Structures are given as C-alpha cells and as structure tokens.
Amino acid sequence: MSGDLKWNKILGAGLATVFVILVVREGTAFIYHNEAPEKMGYLVNAPEEAAGGAAEVVLPPDWGTVLPIADLAAGEAAFARCKSCHTVDAGGPNGIGPNLNGIAGRATASHAGFAYSDAMKAHAGTNPTWTLDELDLFITAPGRHVPGTKMSFAGIRDTATRVNLIAWLRSQGSAGMAIPAPDPARQPGAAPAAPVEGAEAAGAENGGQTGGAPVTGAAGQPTTAATPAAPPAATSPAPPNT
Asked: Domains, the chain, ranges and CATH?
C-alpha cells in the first residue's frame, strides 16, 4: 500500500510541475503581449540620388591649400593608431606592415624586406606611386581601395584627420616632395575635372596632385603672386586687293 502512495506522490509532483510551467508560460504571454507595429522597420533619413541615378561627387583635398596649414601635432597623434603595425623612423624595422618613413612619393609595394600581398602588388601596376591622393584614398578605406590587401585597418573617414596624418607622414622622410600649387578645381563647389591621360605621372611630379604646378623653393609653400599677361602683338592691316 505504501508503495502505491509513493508512486502517486511522484506522479502528482510531475503533474503539478507541468501545471506550473503551463501557467507561467500563459501568464507571461498575457502580461508581455506584443502588438504588431503599424509600419515595419525604422525610417532612415538618407538623401535620394539625383535624377538619372548620379552619385554625389566628393572632391579630393586641395593639397596646395590644406598641407601648409595642416596640424602636424594632430597628425602625429592620429598615427598612434598605426603604431601597432607600422614604424616610421628612418631605417626602422618592418612590422605587421612596412616601415612608412618616406612613404609620400615612394613607389608602391617597394619597401625592402616586406612581403606585400598579391593584391597590393597588382595595385602597384596601375598606381605605381604613393601620391598624396593615393595615400588619402587608401587611408580612407584600405580594403575598399585595394580589395584583398592584408591591411585589416577599417580606415579614417574624417577628412581633416587624414590631411593632418598625411602632412605628418610627409614630414617623416618625404619633405622633398613638393607641395602642389592650390587647385581651384578642387575647391568646394567646383565641377569635377575630366580625367586626363597620364594624370598619374603628372601627379607624381606635382606632389601627388594633378592640376596646378608644384611649389618649389626651400619652404615649399604656395605663392599667390600672379605674372601679368603680355600685351597682344600688333597686327598690320592686310594690303588692298589689286
């Protein structure tokens, strides 16, 4: 008789446990009932593309204007996020990434002793020099500018931070790279210029920027003095028709 009572107690405890679980589940569903939203998702306030699907054109920095006034101290501070992979002192060792001394104006994928990715070697075939524009594009988003690069850094989206960083990198072994003259075509509101054949070579000779001629002189600062135009040559009247 006592054995039957034992099994009845066990069975009763099991049923009571199932009952409690069902009550808790149904009660929770009743208390925390969710209403379906009238509109699904979130509104993203993104500007629509212009007519014809044309994307907004972002002009590259006007190096002749921004480099002379760049904050080198801020650029050095921005380089702190690069120190885990790169050294910048002259003759410094390679790390996870190559030494960056003299990077501005240096041939792409050329630093001795560093094993560049196949993607960077291929990129060097079409972009043989680390011009100022190339540095800017790569630092903005390395993986987007050179798909397949070993550099896992996400990039720097802030233009002022990139300009300061590039200006500081130029001061680390690349000071001989001339600062380009200010280029009105790169000023805000200017229409983008059409690509010119041989622009890469011209940019390398112009401090990494196509457009105005490079600034020369010890200081490497742009000048604003204009040379007066020569007066038109006098022409003689045509002789009468005889």
From this structure: 61-187 (1.10.760.10)
